[in-house]
Amino acid sequence: MPAHPQPSNAAAPLPGRWFPRRIMIVTDAWEPQVNGVVRTLRTVAGLLRGWDLQVEVVGPDRFRTIPCPTYGSIRLAVLPGRWLNRLIEAFGPEALHVATEGPLGVSARRWALANSAHFTTAYHTRFPEYLQARTGLSPNLAYALLRRFHAAGSGMMVAAASLRRELAAHGFCNILPWSRGVDLELFRPAPRWDWAMPRPVFLYVGRVAVEKNIEAFLGLDLPGSKAVVGDGPQLDELRRRHPRVHFAGPLQGAALASAYAGADVLVFPSLTDTFGLVLLEALACGTPVAAYPVTGPIDVLDGAGNVGALDADLRAASLRALQADRAACRGHAEGFSWQVCAERFLANLVPLKGEFQPAAEE
């Protein structure tokens, strides 16, 4: 299938292979949620639109919703199938991307299979490990269900190389490389937030939820002060249990960037993230990172120079990160481009109908 002409306002060459002009992204994670999935999809969609491509994002905001069990701030679409089918057919996409495995993702997958349509998926969230963290159940059943979900697509996009290897070992197939980026204009080393607390300031940014392993950070014996930016189902409980920790609540935009820049170390205690955009945001602000040597931190920090520390002992990592080079942190973050992320996403898409050549793996 021949490639379309290059969009006249594209900032960089688009893929030489086929790519679509009309793209539909179906996602259960969308605004007003604040998380890495939403930031990624919103940024990629905006860049693609800037290249004169038509992008339709369908999220829960278009449907009747109910609160997600154990996480009330996340809304799930209720019986979205019939209305979603109409939206897909009215838009007439040339490519369909099913971003999540929730009610909307399941309905989009069902429509595609019923209409012999090709589609891509993405692995954004470690649901098996999240389920285990919340319920204690073995992740084996969840992995089986996810393998079946993604196997119906023509490719599953995964950002972290270490996670791609891990999922392949779990029996997933058609795994496609993706990437992540950071807004280098927004996230900068200055201005720095004056936390007005004893230094050094160790900062956590993200959802305040059990699967983020945040208590591994809050329980550390560290000098100075600890601060938490974010919201989530554990917020009230942890505020009561850790009165000496400063809980700033959710921050966005310039306020979030200034909070990163004003911290001495970002501590990332999660063991279950698939990438960790907050790592890049902190580094772009000149703030080093301390984390466990797991998927996400390994992919962002390993071999990057003096920009933080990875250690199975999170306290040791946090203290070593104080010695990092803040200029090197910024320099490392500058290597992560949202434009490259959007270009790779576009290259991974497949035609809704007809034959296609799968994107090459890196």
CATH first level of the largest domain: Alpha Beta
How many angstroms does the end-to-end distance come to?
23 Å
CATH homologous superfamily grouping of the largest domain: Glycogen Phosphorylase B
Read across the widest sheet, the strand sequence of neighbours is: 2-1-5-6-7-8
Overall geometric form: globular
Low-confidence stretches: 1-13
Beta-strand percentage? 15-25%
Question: Which structural class fits the helix and strand makeup?
Answer: alpha/beta
CATH topology grouping of the largest domain:
Rossmann fold
H/E series, N to C?
EHEEEHEHEHHEHEEHEHEHEHEHEHHH
Tell me the radius of gyration: 21 Å
Overall number of strands: 14
Distinct helical segment count: 14
What is the total number of structural domains? 2
